[in-house]
Amino acid sequence: MTAQPLSQDTIAAIATAIVPQQGSVGIVRLSGPESVSIARTLFHAPGRQAWESHRILYGYVRHPQTEQIIDEALLLLMLAPRSYTREDVVEFHCHGGIMAVQQVLTLCLEQRARLAQPGEFTLRAFLNGRLDLTQAESIADLVGAESPQAAQTALAGLQGKLAHPIRQLRATCLDILAEVEARIDFEDDLPPLDEEAIKQQLRQALAEVEQILATADRGELLRTGLKVAIVGRPNVGKSSLLNAWSRSDRAIVTELPGTTRDVVESRLVVAGIPVQVLDTAGIREATDRVEQIGVERSRTAAQSADLVLLTIDAQTGWTDADAMIYEQVKQRPLILVLNKIDLVASPPPLPDLPPTPTVKTAAAHQQGIDALEQAILSRVEAGALQAANFDLAINQRQAAALTRAKTALQQVQATIADQLPLDFWTIDLRSAIQALGEITGEEITESVLDQIFSRFCIGK
């Protein structure tokens, strides 16, 4: 699909989060040919302020019929093509809250603008050549980033650090395709095809594709985070561990077993990775109906977690109850946490288990938390973070397209090895080119665009 500008209508939306009775500034954004005309109808700029591009005007938003003042505001003009969408863009910077921005938006909609669809501003930026598709997706990742590392990775994508190598790979495939098709059409007029050179180009392209594909797990981790469940029998210090780790009193801590009746959640960031920590109810055979529900939710949380922290009481050591819980969670990535280590002279012996990382903590005194975080990072790195280039972190859509490109390039290699005619080479080369073009948006369908941009907020 070739990028084409959208129809010449003007869209409007609230571009900032709106919280009742909170927020100092709320922005209403317009994009399209009527943006400046609508702004002139609604905005009164006293004095001789110049209505020029990339200038801020001070004044009032007024009802065009009644001239009632709706808000005291600033107006920012960004005329095409020097704007986010490469169309005329106008922003009303109003007072925050709900009423002011809602009233300004309503006035814009009454003046021939229509409400923007989710992601439509960024979609226009893509279709008008302002951004490629990887940059557009990076904007969504930046808005939704939950850690500094996730934000930095999104910024790297916005700066073209993914698009550049993808375009180079596609250019390589196009060059090979041109060489092959030239030999098909003008075999008698050209020197023989240099198969060894093409094989070398394919090997290098495949290596680069695999290197970028290796960032998929990291990308998913940075976007969705890591879900960690703290499990164990009652009164082993699970809630104390959560409180020490989050440096808060999220969970109630008492000497009474069974205090935690439901899953308590806290969100942390560990080495740039968002972590959702779930403190679960102590797992045991309960007779109380409420505690039974809590225990069942604990088991569910453990089964859905990316990583389980099986917490053991150092005072009592390994018990039959611990063994029972271990059997339920041993199929999940696991770390043993030997808590209350400060209350014993020496650590109690643990059973002969398959190799499992073990961390000693004294949660009540916030000891061992650094070691716990390091153990978690070691487990993550052993599984997911194998990518050498941490500036890149592709998403699932990009990984799927790259996987298709990898398969196609491997098929080209097999075709060459089987000494099949040149026409067969071109089939898989075109498939690789198509797949790589889908990543940057040079080859894309409307249905894919709809799927991508529907996940954006309306003001983006």
Automatic annotation (TrEMBL):
Metal-binding is among the record's keywords: yes
Gene: mnmE
Positions bound to (6S)-5-formyl-5,6,7,8-tetrahydrofolate: 29, 91, 130, 460
PANTHER family xrefs: TRNA MODIFICATION GTPASE GTPBP3, TRNA MODIFICATION GTPASE GTPBP3, MITOCHONDRIAL
Tree of life domain: Bacteria
Binding sites annotated in the UniProt record for K(+): 235, 254, 256, 259
Family note: Belongs to the TRAFAC class TrmE-Era-EngA-EngB-Septin-like GTPase superfamily. TrmE GTPase family.
Main localization, broad class: cytoplasm
Species annotation: Leptolyngbya sp. NK1-12
Name of the protein described by the UniProt record: tRNA modification GTPase MnmE
